[in-house]
Specification:
The chain has three helices and no strands. With 122 residues, the chain is an all-alpha fold. The protein is elongated. It starts with a helix and ends in a 26-residue tail after the last helix.
């Protein structure tokens, strides 16, 4: 084996492991109920674009489809994390929006809950 073969094998091994390392982050993001606030969309978007540019470099400059495929897979992992976090944040914000605005003059400090509570009979 040449040094080029060894470095390619190491590159392939660790980039495959890196792709697999996205799985726990994706699983945690899917289970998150607080809008995935701990996930930085800016950071993960930068990782995504970085992987896409590395993939383009591998194809155009190196003609190396193995390297390009690994960067593509890493880009897919980043894109999934960004997509899941964005959807979770949208759902969380939508869930937080008040259904009906309550005036303090209409009831007590918390508003008149009897008008909107589903368990009350109108």
């Amino acid at each position: 084996m040449t040094l080029a073969d060894v470095t390619l094998a190491v590159f392939t091994l660790f980039n495959t492991l890196r792709f697999l390392a996205y799985v726990p982050q994706i699983a945690r993001a899917l289970k998150d109920r607080s809008g995935a606030q701990a996930i930085s969309l800016g950071t993960w978007s930068l990782f995504f674009v970085s992987h896409l540019s590395a993939m383009a470099y591998a194809i155009v400059n190196q003609h190396d489809w193995t390297m390009a495929t690994l960067f593509l897979l890493n880009g897919v992992g980043c894109a999934l994390i960004v997509l899941i976090a964005a959807v979770k944040r949208s759902q969380y914000r939508h869930h937080l929006q008040p259904i009906e605005a309550c005036s303090l003059a209409d009831g007590d400090y918390y508003g008149d809950l009897s008008r909107t509570a589903p368990w009350t009979k109108n």
